[in-house]
Amino acid sequence: MAVARRSILSRVARALKSALDPGVLLHPLRLMHYYGYTHVAQRRLLHLGKDVRLAPNVSFANGERIALGDQVQVGARCSLWAGKTTSWIRVGDRTTFGPEVFVTAADYGLAAGTRITDQAMIERDITIGTDCWIGSRAILTAGISIGDGAVIGAGSVVTRDVPAGAIAVGVPARVVRMRG
């Protein structure tokens, strides 16, 4: 009986200590700051088709130049970064992105003698067809096009166009066979 009473008192003390923790008390301020994150504020700028499914922690940059077709699914911790001024990311209907896919439509310049981040970005559109599957942790670089029904293997780095119906894998990604 005495042991049970001490256990209950111990639980109550831990609960009070947790509720009065400064981190818990400051959490509402963190939530207000949360709105500015790339997965919250940018989301309202996107061009979204019907029934698009986005993981809650997807990161977008320049969302006004990202278009996702009907029934697109974007997995956890994916990043879709359109260019700052001109380049678009366009994704066809029913395309699925696995977790942690990174898509960027812009690169920094590489001229010697100038800081890379001080150079103008080189922006090129990315087009992904309908019914594609982009595997986990794939990287899609600026200027590429992926044809309808293509599959990009997990961990692949796509630096060149992938034709419709192709299965591409590796670093850099290469077509290994056609679907069907």
Description:
The chain is an alpha/beta fold and 180 residues long. The chain has two domains: 1-34; 45-178, Hexapeptide repeat proteins (UDP N-Acetylglucosamine Acyltransferase, domain 1). Helices cover 17% and strands 28% of the residues. It has two helices and 19 strands. It has helices at 2-19, 22-34; strands spanning 47-48, 53-54, 59-61, 66-68, 73-74, 79-81, 89-91, 96-97, 102-104, 106-108, 121-123, 126-128, 133-134, 139-140, 145-146, 151-152, 157-158, 166-169, 174-178. The strands form four sheets. Strands 2-5-8-13-16-18-19 form a seven-stranded mixed beta sheet, with no helix packed on it. The longest helix is centred in the first third of the chain and has 18 residues, at 2-19. The chain is elongated, with a radius of gyration of 22 Å. The mean pLDDT is 90.
Shape call: elongated
CATH superfamily (homologous) name of the largest domain: Hexapeptide repeat proteins
CATH architecture of the largest domain: 3 Solenoid
Name of the top-level CATH class of the largest domain: Mainly Beta
Give the helix tally: 2
Number of strands: 19
How much helix is in the residues?
10-25%
Q: List segments where confidence is low: pLDDT < 50 over at least 5 consecutive residues.
A: none
Structural class estimated from helices and strands: alpha/beta
Kindly summarize this structure in a few lines.
With 180 residues, this protein is an alpha/beta fold.
Considering the chains and any ligands shown, give keywords for the structure:
single chain; 180 residues; alpha/beta; UDP N-Acetylglucosamine Acyltransferase, domain 1; 2 domains; seven-stranded mixed beta sheet; five-stranded parallel beta sheet
